[in-house]
Structure formats: C-alpha cells, structure tokens
Here is the input.
Amino acid sequence: MKRCPYCHKHLTQNNHCSNCCLQVHYSVDPSHKRMSSQKNTDLQDETSAASMNVLKKWVPVIIVSFIIVLLLILFLLLRNFNSPEAQAKIFVNAVQNDDASKVATLISTKQNKVGRKDAERYIQFIKNEMGFKVLKKEVYTHVEKLNEDSPVAYEIKTADNQTILRISKNGRRYFIFDNLGFQAPTKNAVLKLDTDATYEFSSDGNKKKIVGSKGEMMTLGQFIPGDYTIDATKTTSRGTYEGQLKFNTGSTEHDSVKVTEAFKEARVKVDLKNSSQLSQDSVKVIINGEKFDVADSKIYGPFPLNKDLTISAEGTLQGKTFQAEEKKISQSDVTETNEVTVSFNQQAIEKYQEEQKQNLTKKISEFVKKYTSALNEAYQSHNMSAIESYLLKDTEFYKTMITDVKKQEATQYQTSQVTNVDRTNDFYSVLVQTETEDGQTIQAHYLLQGDEAAKNLKIVNYQSY
Here is the structure.
C-alpha cells in the first residue's frame, strides 16, 4: 500500500491523502524500489520516535540545572552586595571617595538622622584623627570578628581612645547574611551662657532656636564626631551679634563637649577725666543706657557691631550726681576696638564742692557751739545728761568726760569758732578755736563721726593744744 510522502500515512486513494488532504502524485516505480522506500520510511519513523523519547528524559534535567545556575548567579550577586564583607566595603569606599550622601545614609538611625554636611565633617574627622588606611583595616578586622565571634557589636576608636564608629549585627538579610549597622556615636554640645541670650542657627539644614539665661548650661543638641563651626546669631538686651559656635568632639573623652563662641563684637575703652573728686564707688560708665562699674582695664563690652554706641558717665559728690559729657560712635564707625574720652565738668564739681564745704563748716560750727553751751551746763550741774547726745559712747573720751564733769570747778567756754574741716570716709577732722571766760584762746581738734550731709554727728575724740 502506498504512503503519503508528507505525513507517511497509508493512502486509501491513489492521488489524495485523507490525513493531510494533499494531492499525491506517484510515478510508477519498480516493486523492489517501493519496498525499499517503505522500509526506509519505517526506519526513520522509529529513529525519530527514539530521539523524542531521549529528549523528553533530558528536559527536566536541563530545566533543573538552569534553575540551579540562576540561583547560584543570584546568590553571588546578593553576596557581592549584602554579605558583611560587602557591606563593610561599601562603607569603606564611601569614606574613601568622600561620598557624604552614602555615609549619611549608612550611619543614620531612627533616633539620629545624619545629614550630608555632618557626614562631610564626619569623613574629614575620621581621616584627620586616625587616617583612612587605619580605618579600613579596623573595619575589616572587626567585621571578620563579628563573623567568627559571638559578640553582636564592636567599637572602633582613635589613638586618643575616642569612639569613632560602632559596628553591630542588626538581624538578617534575605535570611542568609548578617545585616550590619554602622553607627556614629554622638556627644552633647553644651554652652555656658554669660548673659541672657537667644541663639539661632542651622544644623544640617534644620533651623534651631534656643533661649537661655545667664549662668545656665545650654545644650545645642547631639552631634556625631567632627570639628564643627556653625554660623549663628546671638541676641541679647544689647542687640544681635553674628558669628559662629565652635566645638570639636575629639577635645574630650566625656559625653559632653564644650562650645565656644566666636561672634563679631565691639568693645570700648573709656578714659574718664575730672572724676577724682567724686566718690569713686559711685562713678559709673554708661554705654547705650547700661551702667558699668569702673573697670581697671577701662574696657567695656561686648556690644553689637551693627548699632550706634553712646558713651557717658556719672558720679556723686556729697549727695549730688554729676553727669559727664556724652560721646557717640555711629554704627558705620563702630569697630571691634573703640576708644573714647569723656569728661566731667570740673568747674561745676569745684563750685559744688566749695558750697558743700561752706555748708558743712556751717553745720559743724553750729554743732560745736551747741556742744560748748551744753558742756558749760554739764560743768555747772556736774551732770552728763546735758552732753550725752553729743558724744559717742563707749569711747575713751566719753569715759574721760564722765570724770571731768564730776569736778567741782571747770573752765567755762565763751565762744567757739571752726577754722578748718576735712572729711575722710565717715569721720570729720575739725579744728576749733575757743575762747575761755578769762580771755584765753584754746586751739583744739575734734574728731567727729557723721554722714556725708553732716547729720547725726557724734564726738569721738577731743584734743587741745
């Protein structure tokens, strides 16, 4: 029976295949050729079927092998980016290449987000304090220890025992690799205020405003290792200053680091003239309405550079306040160092001093005259009550007068005239000329205690010449 040359199915008809529906044309072949062709066709069918069976057996093996290869490639890729060694290499390369953004991402935590600028300082601090090569060696050594040992964290320190990096195990990655955490330790930056002030500054793009009182320890926040110079403004009752807040975390082993101020400030050296006759404790230098005790250095401040400076002074003499002339330095002329001279009115001080001297002399003369009259009365009555209000009790002079008053005879004084008065602190030195009833003139010195206005006078001592 004939076969279709295309699908090899037996033909039911001579010129048409019922299986593939194709027209079939055959030439008349010898019978032995037809038999040979039939055998070849059958052999080809058997070989094809055997090949298909073998291929079917290898397909699962090939698929499984392909999957294994893919998994191996995936593992190698994951290992290159996620193994502890790979994580360490990423950190080390970021430091080496000054990749602040990458370092900031690696060392940030939920509690402490690190910005790019702080990361830049951190990288530079590492390179300055311990050097990149040392850091690289330390990081790889400690990561290897984490793989081998049970501890979950190691700290890397500088030669000065400053902790600069903490490497820890923080769970797993893809259930295969240890996940490493790189943490930069923080220190509290503190500033002791010398006056009530408000500080405003930006820390890694975040604006901060801190208000503190004089003598208070004010904290700026937590900072990772670095050498910081932060632009800031400082506002006090005197005005606003511009400058920086500076600190280096490597300057101390403690958890807190001291902040120093570097603001643009003006200071004024003030020379006072004609103030020697005033009460020195009362003399004050006045700058922009603020009063200062007289300083030995004659330098006052600080003051803002962006404001006018008005300088004057005041002082008192025997109850009266004298104002010195006023000097002004305009804002455009204010520098970090300024010097002015302010003077008191010498003539006005001397005039008032003379008036006060005459007034004091008059008051003391009246006191001495009243005392002289009372003394005569005490001698006549031999009673201390007449003069007790004039004497300072519990002095040697007071005891002497008790004895003198008791005498039966005593000199009677007619007139007393004050010839000179000098004051030192709370005491008056008074020279008095007294005439007795027999016309004899006696020169005497009184030491009186009393206030600046010659009130509440008491005799401390008496001596005649």
